[in-house]
Amino acid sequence: MSAIKPQPLDKQLQYKVFVHNLNRIYFAKTYLDKKMPNLIDIASFKGLKLGMGEFWEDVKKQIARMEVIYKTIGELPSDKNCNPLKAIIKDEFCLDQKHELAILNDMDLIMYMQMLEHINIACYGLLKVIAKQLNYDHIEQLLKECFDECVDNDELFVLIAKEYVQ
Known about the structure:
The protein is 78% helix and 0% strand. The chain has helices at residues 11-42, 46-73, 83-91, 102-133, 137-165. Helix 1 packs antiparallel against helix 2, helix 1 runs parallel beside helix 3 (83-91) and helix 1 runs antiparallel to helix 4. The termini are far apart.
């Protein structure tokens, strides 16, 4: 079976795809920003609370970078069609259901944070590819910074989990 290569997208369609996905991650991040105090309060392990605080600072930096991107391309953020990512954040991995053991709650938080970062890595990766196609060099750099923070945060939560269980 041979794979059929799709036709290249014209610049206008690439731009629409770019803005659509930028909106999705922007509103997911702004929604998450509002939920972080509650998520940090759920954590019982001090190292996890500190890691989540670092994560939250990165969320704020990423929102600020995306606002620069919107300004650069002359767009305003639109919350239209952003429900899939917001739904994942809103679900909170059922974190409102407390376990008898604090470690179970904390491990659920770690998995939730990592799941979010894996989604972010995928989203920023896609946006970087499209930004390159659109010759948005400055924007591509901002997205790379966001991407790198997500990778670093994923690694941070792995280290926190290792520290917790040792």
